[in-house]
Design brief:
The chain has about 190 residues and is an all-alpha fold. The chain has one domain. The protein is built from 4 helices and 2 strands; from the N terminus they run H-H-H-E-E-H. The chain has a two-stranded antiparallel ribbon. Strand 1 and strand 2 form a beta hairpin. The two termini are about 35 Å apart.
Length: about 190
Amino acid sequence: MKTFLQRIDAALSHVESLTDLLAAIAMLSTMAIVGGEVVSRYFLNAPLQWSYDVLTLYVLPSLFFLGLPGSYAKNSHIAVDLLIDRLPASAVSVIVMVGRLGGMFLFACIVYFGVEHALEAYRSDESVPGVVTFLVWPSYALVPLGCALVLLRMLSELPADIIAIARGSSAAHGTTDPQKEKGFYE
């Protein structure tokens, strides 16, 4: 029988897999739109009037903010481990927990103000005029969505941090073990 935290982890993992897939689709869309723009502009002498707006409003924010939760969950974000590798496990656990609490505060602020900003854009029907009128609120909504998923992942990892500190062991999710996780290039 799965514990509550295991069910939360499994649910978050499913959502993160979906957001990773959507971020990959955004990456492919970026390549297709830019490729189409190059062909259209230089070979057909008819640039795509909508490509810049679509890329900057929807595709690139999707790529970043939908890719953020999965990269955080897989611990594939940038980390500098110069000092962490030399510290005792109990100190690492405390540092990881303090860092996670700071990150949780930061992401909670981004979620709160991001939702406010997206709702204001929705209520005022904010748009970017041009050949095609693009609504702005979906772009703004991507920010709190991606950050909320990272915040939920951080919250789900907090009990492991507390247990690691209580046991005086290394944090479960805080640092990478080079022997346990071989990188892509190794």
